[in-house]
Amino acid sequence: MNLIRSVLPHILIIISGIFIVFLILDSYNPTMEFVSNPISTKLFWAFCILSIINGVLTIVSNRSKWRNKE
Fold first, then answer.
1. For residue 51, what are the contacts with CB-CB under 8 A and spacing of at least 6?
2. Cα angle at 51 between 49 and 53, to 5 degrees?
3. End-to-end CA distance of the chain
4. What average pLDDT does the chain have?
5. Which residues, other chains included, contact 30 with Cβ-Cβ below 8 Å and sequence gap of 6+?
6. From what superkingdom does this record's organism come (predicted)?
7. % of the chain residues with pLDDT over 70
8. pLDDT tens digit string along 3-35?
9. Which of 14, 17, 18, 48 has the most C-beta neighbours closer than 10 Å?
10. Distance in angstroms (rounded) separating the CA atoms of residues 51 and 28
């Protein structure tokens, strides 16, 4: 369980970065149609930003707990 809690934020940050790249690519080349609905674009941005914040906060919390053990 600890392995999942420590690896999950990193995976979440990577997936969020991929979604951000998809959004940027969609804005430069709309014919690829990664995201075609304006509402879904806003939801993707919200998901990406919140996921990165959640991942960073979890990593900081895990590192501070790890440092307090030593």
1. 12, 13, 15, 16
2. 70
3. 21
4. 84
5. 36
6. Bacteria
7. 93
8. 766 787 888 888 888 888 888 988 898 888 777
9. 48
10. 24
What does pTM read for this prediction? Answer: 0.68
Amino acid code (one letter) for 51: S
> Tokens 């990664």 map to which residue?
34
The one-letter code for the residue type at 39 is: I
Query: In the predicted model, is pLDDT for residue 70 greater than 80?
Result: no
Q: What are 24's two structure tokens?
A: 């940027």
Q: Token pair for residue 8?
A: 């999950």
Taking the C-alpha atoms of residue 47 and residue 45, their distance in angstroms, rounded to an integer, is 5
Phi, psi values for residue 65, rounded to 5°: -65, -40
